[in-house]
Amino acid sequence: MVQSMSAPGRFLEDVLRRCGLIDGYAVVQSPIGAVYAAMGERGITAVMEASSETEFEGRYRERFGRRVERRDQLSAELQNAMQRGSRAKVDLSECNPFQRAVLEATRRIRPGTVRPYAWIAREIGHPGAVRAVGTALAKNPVPLIVPCHRVVRSDGETGEYALGADDKVRILEHEGVHVPELRRRVTMHEFWSPEGDDTFCYPFCFSEPQLHGRHFRKFQTPQEAVRLGLTPCETCHPPLAA
To answer: In this structure, which topology does domain 97-185 adopt according to CATH?
Structure first.
């Protein structure tokens, strides 16, 4: 007679974990306080605010379709990733191709600078998809890591944010952005060239320290700058025609 055997109580969980079907998470500190950050085999999968571990675990399972468990040994690694920001390894496999393109463009925005939603749309080759860019950013699974807080409205307002509009302002100010000055600069449709430089940029290309004490030439169209022998900035990519 074959005797039946039962698997140890944690056997299934161990198998799922080794197969990458259970992710781990920890509570880490951010510019807006404590947040929950999760990690899988391919990188950071989520950054969320939640009132409790139970709420976070439930929201995670609902969004990603798999379990997540607290692993305190991940705390240091996830905290370091939070400090590295957009340089950290993230898992965007749950995103569709359009959203991944939006998030990858967003990762190139440097601290202390911003870009309008329309800039992201143009960078990914869909200049008419400004509203869709906003929707994609609203679903960003890893805010603070992929810095969607650095994408603002073309009227100079900071706009909505996956972790809340007020937190968006707090994070930008933490990064050294003077929000009233940001609003003024984003609404300007001029192109700027730092004195002594041979490139021209959008006004939102510069961080606050870069602006301090510097003089700029201003142009109403990129053609004016080109006629003076200036070339487009390799960071903000102003158009050669407008």
So the answer is: Arc Repressor Mutant, subunit A (1.10.10)
